[in-house]
Amino acid sequence: MNDKKKIISKNFLQNINHKTINNKINDDYLVSVVIPSFNQDKYIEKSILSVINQNYNNIELIIIDGGSTDKTTSIIKKY
User: Fold this and answer.
1) CA 52 to CA 61: how far, in whole Å?
2) Is the pLDDT of residue 74 over 80?
3) What is the pLDDT of residues 5-52, one digit of tens each?
4) How many CB atoms within 10 Å of residue 51?
5) Cβ contact 58:31 at 8 Å
């Protein structure tokens, strides 16, 4: 990680720490999680659940499927 990214990451974490009340982070920041997928029916549900089960609530999950021909899309549609 270059120095500029380290500074941005450090500042971001410091801002989050200032918004912590009773050891719980306020949901002021939207966190976007992007999962690219192509024929990942063995792994996609575990990935989705990993995001859904986070303690932080203000999360958007974006799954970009590249035209899967296995069961990936049917698993994604469950959520």
Assistant:
1) 8
2) yes
3) 445 555 555 555 555 555 566 778 999 999 999 999 999 999 999 999
4) 16
5) yes
Q: Which two tokens stand for residue 14?
A: 């410091």
Q: If you search the block for the tokens 């499927």, which residue do you land on?
A: 65
Long-range contact pairs involving 26-31 (C-beta distance under 8 Å, separation at least 24): 27/56, 27/57, 27/58, 28/58, 29/58, 30/58, 30/59, 30/60, 31/56, 31/58, 31/59, 31/60
> Beta strands 20-21 and 24-25: pairing type?
antiparallel
Q: DSSP strand E in the chain: where?
A: 20-21, 24-25, 31-37, 59-65
Q: How many residues appear in the chain?
A: 79
